[in-house]
Amino acid sequence: MRKSNETLASLIQVSYCLFAEHGIAKTTYTMIAKRVGIAKPSIYYYFDSKDALITGVFDELCKAIEFPAFFELEQFIEDNFVENLIAVGVKMIDEQDKDPYFKRVLQEYMLLATRDQDFSKRLLALQKDYLSGFEALLEKASMLGLLKNKDNLVAKAHMLALILDNIGNFMMFDEQIDYKQIWIEAVHSLFTKEETDENETTNYRI
Amino acid sequence: MRKSNETLASLIQVSYCLFAEHGIAKTTYTMIAKRVGIAKPSIYYYFDSKDALITGVFDELCKAIEFPAFFELEQFIEDNFVENLIAVGVKMIDEQDKDPYFKRVLQEYMLLATRDQDFSKRLLALQKDYLSGFEALLEKASMLGLLKNKDNLVAKAHMLALILDNIGNFMMFDEQIDYKQIWIEAVHSLFTKEETDENETTNYRI
DNA sequence: GTCTATATGGGGATAGAC
DNA sequence: GTCTATCCCCATATAGAC
Q: Nearest CA to CA, how far is B142 from chain A (Å)?
């Protein structure tokens, strides 16, 4: 007999994967129980209902997201600002490449959120953090005099956030696009280009 | 007795709405039949199975999208290029505001597409058209000498496309953001700013 | 905490009359 | 084309033993 915690963790992990593979609505207790390796009714020991399970998986997802300050404002200084910002984006793109489940499951919950106040509120809160992160970043860049233009910082920050976010969505089902280059263009479009070698600005390298 | 065409149209229309309201997987023949005002088995006269219905709705959706040249390249000339491009985006934003169902249903199918080759192919084709539209546009802008920088036109075009697309997604569940301003910033970030009155560039008006 | 057995409801789908 | 009646299956969920 395994410890309850293990089963619970496995239950959530397995559900998460199945949600990505089949969608939340089409994932059944039968599938979950089978893959976890327990009997179907055992799930009810941990979750009173399927809705509870769906919420439970969402809770874990939120914890995992909560950009644990996915970028540190302090480490952005005048010298490395643009490179750093590009690196952050490239890193996020690479991570999404590794975990294609994440965006899918998140999209599932986004759709649920359009019909459920609770999910909606919590996703909005996450989104707000995400957006403010970029706002703070651009504010700092502005104060350092790194931006081409100081107007409408908020809109510019949101622009960057929207791009990075949607790169993840597009990656879900289109492999052909040069996402890193898009991100680089987006960043360069806002920042004063420090004069470097032509080749370096046109072709990125990691 | 109504004509078959009417019933079919109603069937698709109602399904489309229910798909948006409840999600595809949770929309049942019972719901559809009730709202259309026919008996449940009557649906089978038009669609052999629920999968067939789902595909049928998708067919209609695709027809509706196929950006019937959602912007005309010819009408973009040197004098009005930026304004026109902004207007196109603002128009799309306004339209999404009017039909909040559209993006939701599309997202539903996007998720289906991650698990179904057929949907995937067809959505990719649509996406490609959408992206090439922006590519052609920026190419023209570049030849007219309207861009700040002629490098990586494709990436820049994709950047614009990603932004406009994700504005639609965000609008699904966040009303608070100034989407039009984001779009304006995105466009301005690529184009050489013609010198106009300060106020006009910082605050848009329709 | 996990099991077997079982209840219940509603989903997609068919048969066949009109 | 649309209906009524009906079938089957499987999903969520419960009861109660171990």
A: 15
CB B39 under 7 Å to nucleic chain C: no
Give the separation between CA B151 and CA B142, rounded to whole angstroms: 9
Does strand C come within 7 Å of the CB of A12? Answer: no
How far is it, in rounded angstroms, from Cα A102 to Cα A172? 10
D4 nearest neighbour residue (CA to C1'): B39
pLDDT averaged over 10-residue windows placed end to end, chain A, 206 residues? 82 98 98 98 98 98 79 93 97 94 98 98 96 97 97 98 98 96 98 62 48
Using the structure, give the distance in angstroms from the CA atom of A8 to the C1' atom of C11, rounded to a whole number: 30
- Give how far Cα B78 sits from Cα of B73, B85, B136, B195, Å: 12, 12, 15, 15
Query: CA gyration radius for chain A?
Result: 21
A2 CB and strand C closer than 7 A: yes
The predicted structure's pLDDT at residue B51: 98
pLDDT value of residue B205? 46
- Mapping DSSP to helix (H, G, I), strand (E, B) and coil, where does residue B192 land? coil
pTM of the model: 0.94
Looking at the predicted structure, is the pLDDT value of residue B198 above 50?
no
Nearest nucleotide (C1') to the CA of residue B42?
D2
Cα Dmax for chain B: 65
B104-142 pLDDT tens trace = 999 999 999 999 999 999 999 999 999 999 999 999 999
Q: Helix (H, G, I), strand (E, B), or coil: what is residue B108?
A: helix
Q: Which of B125, B148, B158 is nearest to A181 (CA)?
A: B158
Mean pLDDT of chain B: 92
Nearest nucleotide, CA A50 to C1'? D12
